[in-house]
Amino acid sequence: MNRGKLIVISAPSGSGKTTIAKEIMKRNPTLVFSVSATTRAKRDGEVEGRDYFYLTEDEFLKKIDEGEFIEWEKLYGNYYGTLKQEVERTICNGKHMLFDVDVNGGLSIKRKYPDACLIFIKPPSIEALKQRLFGRRTENGTATTRRLDRVPMELEKGQEFEHQIVNDALDIAVEEVQNIVQTHLHE
Ligand code: ADP
Ligand code: 5GP
């Protein structure tokens, strides 16, 4: 059986990556979403095992020590990581996977899985990004500012991704990402 393929979506926080990833999952029912582990608090509406595996910091650090992550990062004061066992089990069964990780995570996945397809989502402007991030109201002002601090680094590293999509009109961005996904899965 052929191994499943990997598609990674990264973006500065607030660019609309989760919104686009959810739409791509709806349109491609055979894709498996890579559920990451995190130490950040669960947001309203999020579900354990569907959005993330929510761990304590001690649990997360133990998994780092035991080599259970393909990659992990500390972002905005919390840990996030991709679990090796989840990914290997899925792709060994021939299933394709979609990853929603930060730019460094995306580049780490590419180093370990060179055939992975990397898609970077850009906001149309920094102003639009701020509006979306503050409009989402999932973080307080300080936490939102912390997310904005990383944007220049993310835009820089995003240039290393093979595909770059501007999320201005959502339906157009989804269509563009969908075309890339379909092409990659049928290559
Ligand atoms: P990310 O996962 O990149 O942090 P989200 O998907 O949570 O971002 O989107 C941030 C906010 O912006 C959400 O409130 C979402 O509804 C909104 N949003 C996403 N895409 C667009 C778009 N193209 N135009 C306007 N608002 C958008
Ligand atoms: P959020 O807290 O908004 O869900 O996610 C914050 C950031 O962490 C986003 O950029 C998201 O893509 C990233 N992220 C989520 N899971 C992982 C992961 O497993 N690894 C890495 N490197 N980043 C992740």
Bound molecules: adenosine-5'-diphosphate, guanosine-5'-monophosphate
CATH superfamily: P-loop containing nucleotide triphosphate hydrolases
CATH topology: Rossmann fold
Structural class: alpha/beta
Gyration radius, in Å: 16 Å
**CATH architecture call:** 3-Layer(aba) Sandwich
Number of domains: 1
Spatial shape = globular
Structure summary, number of beta strands? 9
Alpha-carbon distance between the termini?
16 Å
Low-confidence stretches: none
Mean pLDDT: 95
Biggest sheet details: 5 strands, parallel
Overview of the structural elements:
This protein is an alpha/beta fold and 187 residues long. The protein contains 8 helices and 9 strands. It has helices at 17-27, 57-65, 84-92, 103-112, 126-136, 141-149, 151-158, 170-186; strands at 6-10, 32-33, 36-38, 52-54, 69-75, 78-83, 97-100, 117-122, 163-166. The strands form 2 sheets. A 5-stranded parallel beta sheet has the order 2-7-1-8-9, with helices on both faces. A 4-stranded mixed beta sheet has the order 4-3-6-5. Helix 1 (17-27) crosses helix 8. The mean pLDDT is 95. The structure holds adenosine-5'-diphosphate and guanosine-5'-monophosphate. Guanosine-5'-monophosphate (5GP) binds next to strand 5, strand 6 and helix 4.
